From TrEMBL:
Domain AsmA: 293-529
Keyword terms of this UniProt record: Membrane, Transmembrane, Transmembrane helix
Transmembrane segments: 21-43
Biological-process GO terms, alphabetical: regulation of protein targeting to membrane
PANTHER family for this protein: DUF748 DOMAIN-CONTAINING PROTEIN, PROTEIN ASMA
GO cellular component: plasma membrane
Designated name of the protein: AsmA domain-containing protein
Length: 626
């Protein structure tokens, strides 16, 4: 049977396809064999030019050759290599060339080169001097621009490493650290030792590792590293899946420092200055990601425990974790220098109620995350009603949210939400918190006044500290105390009843029907609307203002007794000073014999007959807490 034309065409195409495949295979084989026999010495000039173009200065390679004639894993020899420092490296760093290497012998994998993977399998160096530098903006002389890669990282193919007569120097202007160390790698393993400084504090540096001689695939490589000094130190001991695979490791880490900011120069997590710190944790690194477990440590008087993950993606860092503390002192979050500065402010301006805590998020512009914090017991330098703390912290692209925040008191709770928003420029603080089931005496123990206390604070304002933001804020502050007691002498004086205010039995108590405070705040100035104290002996009202920026009081009290008073102080009683140190200024007529005679005359003449009535505490409470 004769073949049809379509059958003939199909057979012809199959023959052409078979021949083409054979030709391609032969060409690939020839190319592969050519690579196996490639005279690498011809690339000496190309390598010099490309390296020179990259750093902007001439790179020289004294010699480049290969051992043997044919191999898919050829061994190359290089000699007398000089790589100058890029122009950006300042002379003040005190560094020499980026690299000067007497001799290099290395074996490379041609299949790995073709596939684009890590190709160096064995490496021998002798007479190497490496000087590394990182600038304050993150630029480095070994990688160029600041690293913005995601969490991926390729694994090294290196199986054998030998280093003789070599040194490594490192200068880091971003973290203010440096070291100079001798490096050796041979049959006894990896050894590095030298000296350096972290934030100007002297340290020694050391590292140890197992031998790197034909290291088998899949076998963990043990290592240890330590930075030791009186002011700061850190250790890390563990294993890597392959020699020097620093992007993938697991181990146990410890650290100590005079404050957390100094320790952060080693661990680079963007942490603030604090009181002295000691810390330990189990860590796992996978690419640019870290997992931290069994965290345990101490900052000043505070203890901390918990776990966290640190992920780096597209130039941003995300930290998620849980921190618990049996005891926590907010004052431990300030260094000695910070405490001295705060003390100097107190000496200059006096005691202040509103904290001067910094809320500028500029250092955290590339940091996001979520943190849960629980403290069983809060520690304070003096007396305070605040006893415990629970909060959820969320940081998302320069917006910090604490929601919920809950502080346990001796009685009751203070809870709500705080936000620092820095997305439109400088930080803006917004506070919305409620006080519930509290007791008045816990906040003003020296007055002897007590009662059921509730309240709410709603304020928002711009500023780089809490004090500055509140000092520019608008909103309201509301406090209501009811069904309480206070010393009878105090109650009488609030009604401007001079005689009973000094003659009533010191142990006698009066009823506190209600304390009503509502402050309307605009531009950081709080004005009472109203401020009222209603007791079984008197009704007192206050007007004026409180400047929240400096906490200065410009108030005037006017009180009326609820029963006939023999000597009554007329007019208003000025209150000056500050919130923490009020100054009740006794009017002149109460300080002189003439003034007292006038009061007696008014009493005899019946001019002081106006008496106060009970306030509608329930209605005032509803209006104040609206």
């Amino acid at each position: 049977m004769e073949a049809t034309a379509p059958d003939v065409r199909r057979r012809n195409w199959r023959k052409i396809a078979t021949c083409s495949a054979a030709v391609v295979a032969i060409l690939l084989l020839i190319a592969f064999l050519a690579l196996a026999m490639f005279p690498w010495g011809l690339l000496k000039g190309v390598a010099e030019r490309r390296l020179s173009d990259r750093i902007g200065k001439p790179v020289t390679i004294g010699a480049l050759s290969r051992e043997g004639f044919f191999s898919f894993h050829p061994t190359l020899r290089l000699g007398d290599i000089r790589v100058p420092q890029p122009a950006r490296v300042p002379r003040a760093a005190g560094l020499g060339d980026l690299a000067r290497i007497g001799a290099v012998r290395m074996r490379v994998s041609i299949p790995a080169l073709i596939m684009g993977g890590s190709a160096v399998e064995t490496l021998e160096l002798s007479g190497a001097r490496i000087d590394l530098y990182r600038a304050a903006d993150g630029w480095s002389n070994w990688s160029g621009a600041p690293d913005r890669r995601d969490g991926s990282a390729s694994r090294s193919a290196l199986r054998t490493l030998i280093v003789r007569d070599s040194r490594l120097r490192y200068h880091d202007d971003k973290q203010n650290r440096r070291f100079d160390a001798a490096v050796a790698v041979d049959g006894r393993g990896l050894r590095m030792s030298g000296t350096g400084a972290v934030h100007g504090h002297a340290v020694t540096v050391a590292a140890r590792g197992a031998p790197i001689l034909d290291h088998p695939d899949g076998k963990a490589w043990p290592f240890s590293a330590a930075i030791e000094g009186k002011a700061v130190g850190a250790t890390l001991k563990g294993t890597m899946p392959a020699p020097l695979d620093v992007a993938h490791l697991r181990g146990h880490a410890t650290g100590h420092a005079i404050d957390l900011e100094v320790l952060d120069a080693i661990i680079e997590a963007g942490l603030p200055a604090t009181q002295p710190v000691t810390i330990s944790a189990d860590v796992v690194r996978d690419g640019r990601d870290w997992t931290i477990t069994t965290l345990d440590g101490r900052i000043g008087r505070s203890d901390i425990a918990g776990h966290a993950t640190v992920l780096k993606r597209n130039g941003r860092t995300r930290i998620d974790g849980v921190v618990r503390a049996r005891r926590f002192d907010f004052d431990d979050l300030s260094s000695d220098e910070g405490r001295r500065a705060a003390a100097a402010k107190r000496r200059r301006f006096g005691e202040r109620l509103i904290p001067d805590t910094a809320i500028d998020l500029a250092r955290l512009a590339r940091t996001d995350g979520k943190l849960s914090l629980h403290a069983d017991r809060l520690l304070w330098p003096g007396s305070s009603p605040f006893r415990s703390l629970d909060l959820e912290l969320m940081l998302d692209r320069s917006r910090l949210t604490l929601d919920p925040v809950r502080m346990g008191l001796d009685h009751g709770t203070l809870s709500g939400r705080l936000v620092v928003d820095q997305r439109q420029g400088g930080p803006v603080l917004a506070v919305d918190v409620r006080l519930a089931d509290a007791r008045l005496i816990d906040f003003v123990p020296d007055t002897g006044a007590d009662g059921h206390l509730i309240g709410r604070i709603r304020l928002a304002g711009p500023g780089v500290t809490v004090r500055q933001a509140i000092g520019r804020s608008r909103g309201s502050v509301a406090l209501v105390a009811t069904d309480g007691t206070l010393p009878a002498r105090t109650a009488s004086l609030l009604g401007q009843d001079i005689v009973k205010g000094v003659t009533v039995d010191e142990g006698k108590q009066a009823v506190l029907r209600c304390l009503i405070i509502r402050l309307n705040v605009a531009g950081g100035v709080a004005r009472p609307d109203p401020l009222l104290i209603d007791t079984s002996r008197a009704l007192t009202r206050a007007g004026g203002s409180i400047n929240l920026a400096d906490e200065r009081l410009m108030l005037e009290l006017r009180g009326l007794p609820k029963a006939r008073a023999f000597l009554r102080l007329q007019g208003a009683v000025p209150i000056r000073g500050t919130i923490k140190a009020p100054d009740v200024q006794i009017p002149a007529e109460a300080k002189s014999a003439r003034g007292i005679l006038k009061m007696i005359g008014r009493a005899i003449g019946g001019k002081d007959r106006e008496l106060a009535q009970d306030a509608d505490c329930a209605a005032l409470t509803r209006a104040t807490m609206r």
